[in-house]
Automatic annotation (TrEMBL), chain A:
The organism's place on the tree of life at top rank: Bacteria
Gene3D superfamilies the record matches: MetI-like (1.10.3720.10)
Name of protein: Sugar ABC transporter permease
Family the entry assigns: Belongs to the binding-protein-dependent transport system permease family.
UniProt xrefs under Pfam families: BPD_transp_1 (PF00528)
UniProt domain ABC transmembrane type-1: residue ranges: 98-313
Automatic annotation (TrEMBL), chain B:
Swiss-Prot/TrEMBL keywords: Signal
Signal peptide: 1-24
Matches recorded under InterPro entries: Bact_solute-bd_prot1, SBP
SUPFAM superfamilies registered for this protein in UniProt: Periplasmic binding protein-like II
Protein name: Carbohydrate ABC transporter substrate-binding protein
Length: 336, 438
């Protein structure tokens, strides 16, 4: 309504048109009401329309594909109900890919968040050439993931790789970075960590700089050392940021694709599917085996897996958030 | 008031433009149906046309493009090269699946031909009198449908020989002369592994061959129907009379495994190992000679023997296909025809080493006269020509060939390279992988 009361901007309109508009006061009032009611939705609609086109529609269509026999080249076949799902759930390869995905996700996300926190705390201290160090941690993020994979793939080569050569020189036996399950997960997780730790560090650093300095001064007067300050002030104050970082790295970690695909020359996750992730498995089903129906079924199962983990995340998040709130109140009392 | 109206209009316009955008996206897939209708429009010879040629790896066509554009000033050729052959395969499949034509000429590896034959409607019929006897039957069969439609012109081929290291042979007390080694290795696979045992007993520190997966490629290519029944396309590899299982059992036997360098072909370790003395022999189609020379440029002891255990066989080779729905089908056909002409194919071999598949080209003096300084001046042209002539067949490759072959190669890697499974347990996993296909 407010907008209808603002005077109209003078414009080059014919006088007869002005007459017509005055006669149509009722209509323009109606327009005004629509404006107030509809405009907000229209303004945010581009996102939702795009979301429906590129997000919701593919999601639902994947559901349709997953209940059919569907060949990449021949297209839609017979309706088969949930047969694709039951075949996939009985296939040992699927469970291997789930195991690998969760293992690589845990091996990458946990050290990543801890490392990023520590590095951010170091960068938050008074350093010489601050900007240099801060930009330095972001450099790995700029490197293309495929390039990272190629370099790490050479470093982790089972026989000629530099890491195994160092291990052998130190008197250890070489580790089967490609052939064994856990070592291959560690190698792939190290690529992910290399790329993303710096990025998360900068997010933490930005949040740390927003912590009021008087909290640290008060703690200093109370006699708290640096470590105590880190755990009692920095970490609690960073909780919302930590939650954000954990959620983004969960989504990224469960969809990991480039690194395992580029880890060897075939990109099929190893001869024994040691490091085949769910997304790699989808690609393999769809493009190598040309079985879109089954690939769609796995895509839906991955969606459900991410949903389940997100719910767990959400529950933990709520607990941390409420705890954080309680502690913040306490701290306020102390500092007051 | 007018402001409100204007704002409302602006918003409506915004919504409309988004809707337009959305419909523009969806009309893309509609476009796909169009080309197949407008295909028959043949370009007159003086009309300006741009032809996009999709290739991968190195087809050796750069000079030929220049020459063709000089001969046909109205034609502009754009090379659309994929980074890996796997991505090239995915691109071809995508364009078939969405029925859109991106390139006027598409290159395809012989391993993908069964899939492309299954969608032969997408490609133009390339048959004509000039190309009728250009290739031996086993080559043109790969690109001919059941009802006789030729959808691809053969480019190169891969007649296999054996590459060997003279210095390692000498160390083990085996002959090093090319003719003698050829005689030594000619014959059955059993003979090859017997010679291998002699080599291993001499304890040179090197292995006899790089990996059993590489040998399997050669041995599978000598079978008539390794994985599937040619008449029904049913998977037979798991059955009691499986043709591939005896090959698998031989290769994963202790005797043969003991002669392996356990280096998976194409892996980083394999590539790096060329610099050392890791193995003495390897199966060697013409394109492999380029890979050996590229991986070990300083090694002077490699040579090529004019022999292949188990009989002459082909490994690899490609085709040029013309999608039916392209804008310039006739012009594209002309170009593909010209590029795969024996004369041009011989020129590609002389400069790039891609051995031709055109019968006339394989006996062309410029081809047979070629020697390779890297392989001790070996007459590679003549050797591969000798290896090419006796090839009579290619194995039947049904619609599951590609994934089964990958699963089999994984099975070999588990036993030979990763050593995570023994022969029996690895075959069980292979069985599971094949069952998952159907």
């Amino acid at each position: 309504m407010t907008s209808t009361r603002t005077p109209a901007a003078p414009g080059p309109t014919a006088s007869d048109e002005r007459d017509r508009q005055q006669r149509r006061v009722g209509f323009s009032q109606k327009l005004g009401r629509w404006d107030v009611k509809l405009s907000p939705y229209l303004y945010i609609s581009p996102f939702f329309i795009l979301f429906v086109v590129v997000g919701l529609f593919p999601l639902l269509y994947t559901g349709v594909v997953s209940v059919h026999q569907w060949d990449l080249l021949k297209g839609k076949g017979d309706f088969v109900g949930f047969e694709n799902f039951s075949t996939v759930l009985q296939a040992p390869i699927f469970w291997k890919s789930v195991r690998n995905t969760i293992s690589i996700f845990l091996l990458s996300s946990i050290p990543q968040v801890i490392l990023a926190l520590v590095i951010a705390a170091l960068l938050d201290a008074n350093l010489r050439a601050k900007t240099f160090w801060r930009m330095g941690v972001l450099v790995p993020y700029v490197v293309a993931p495929v390039a990272v994979s190629l370099i790490f793939g050479q470093m982790f080569a089972d026989q000629s790789g530099i890491i195994n050569q160092i291990l052998r020189n130190l008197g250890f036996t070489g580790i089967g970075w490609h052939s064994e399950v856990l070592p291959s997960h560690i190698a792939i997780a190290s690529m992910v960590n290399f790329r993303w730790t710096g990025y998360n560090t900068l997010i933490f650093l930005a949040a740390m700089q927003a912590i009021p300095r008087d909290l640290y001064e008060a703690a200093l007067i109370d006699g708290a050392n640096r470590v105590r300050q880190f755990f009692s002030i920095t970490i609690p104050m960073l909780r919302p940021t930590i939650i954000f970082v954990i959620i983004t790295s969960t989504i990224g970690g469960l969809q990991i694709f480039d690194e395992p695909r580029m880890f060897d020359q075939f990109g099929r996750g190893g001869a024994d599917q040691q490091y085949l992730t769910v997304t790699n498995y989808i690609y393999q089903l769809g493009w190598t085996n040309k079985n879109f129906g089954r690939a769609a079924a796995v895509a839906w199962l991955l969606f459900l897996l991410i949903l389940a983990i997100s719910v767990v995340n959400y529950l933990i998040t709520r607990r941390i958030a409420s705890e954080g709130g309680a502690k913040q109140k306490k701290r306020k009392k102390v500092s007051a | 008031m007018r402001k409100t109206t204007r704002k409302f209009l602006a918003v409506t316009a915004g919504v409309a433009s988004i809707a337009l955008l959305a419909s523009a996206c969806s009309s893309d897939s509609g476009d796909g149906d169009k080309p197949s209708g407008s295909s028959s429009a043949s370009a007159p010879s003086d009309e300006k046309v741009t032809l996009k040629v999709a290739t991968f790896n190195e087809f050796g066509y750069a000079d030929l493009y220049e020459e063709y554009m000089k001969l046909h000033p109205n034609v502009t050729i754009v090379n659309d090269k994929a980074d890996t052959s796997d991505n090239a395969r995915a691109a071809v499949q995508n364009s078939i699946a969405t029925n859109t034509v991106v390139d006027d000429i598409v290159a395809a590896d012989s391993d993908w031909m069964p899939e492309l034959i299954a969608s032969s409607d997408f490609f133009a019929d390339l048959g004509s009198d000039t190309v009728k006897d250009r290739w031996p039957a086993w080559k043109s069969q790969l690109s001919t449908t059941a009802d006789g439609k030729l959808i691809g012109y053969g480019t190169d081929s891969g007649p296999e020989a054996v590459c060997y290291r003279k210095d390692l042979f000498k160390k083990a007390g085996l002959p090093t002369d090319r003719a003698e080694v050829s005689k030594l290795l000619e014959g059955s696979w059993d003979n090859y592994f017997t010679q291998g045992q002699k080599f291993m007993d001499a304890k040179t520190g090197a292995a006899w061959f790089d990996s059993i997966g590489a040998l399997s490629q050669g041995m599978i290519n000598q079978l008539e129907a390794p994985f599937e029944d040619p008449s029904t396309d049913e998977i037979t590899v798991l059955g009691a009379d499986s043709k591939a299982k005896p090959v698998y059992d031989l290769l994963t036997s202790d005797k043969v495994l003991g002669q392996s360098a356990h280096l998976g072909q194409w892996s980083q370790d394999w590539t790096d190992a060329f610099k050392g003395d890791k193995w003495a022999t390897m199966l060697c189609p013409p394109w492999m000679t380029q890979i050996i020379a590229g991986n070990a440029p300083d090694q002077t002891e490699w040579d090529v023997a004019d022999a292949l255990p188990g009989g002459a066989s082909n490994w690899g080779g490609s085709f040029l296909l013309v999608p039916e729905g392209g804008k310039n089908v006739e012009a594209a056909k002309q170009l593909a025809d010209w590029l795969t002409d024996p004369k041009q194919a011989a020129a590609v071999f002389v400069k790039y080493g891609n051995f031709p598949s055109q019968t006339a080209a394989t006996t062309d003096p410029s081809v047979t006269g070629k020697t390779d300084a890297y392989f001790g001046g070996a007459p590679t042209g003549q050797i591969f020509s000798n290896r090419f002539a006796p090839i009579e067949k290619q194995p039947y490759r049904g619609s599951h060939y590609f994934p089964i072959n990958q699963a089999l190669s994984d099975a070999y890697t588990r036993v030979d390279v990763d050593k995570t499974d023994d022969s029996a347990s690895s075959w069980k996993k292979f069985e599971q992988a094949v069952k998952d296909l159907s």
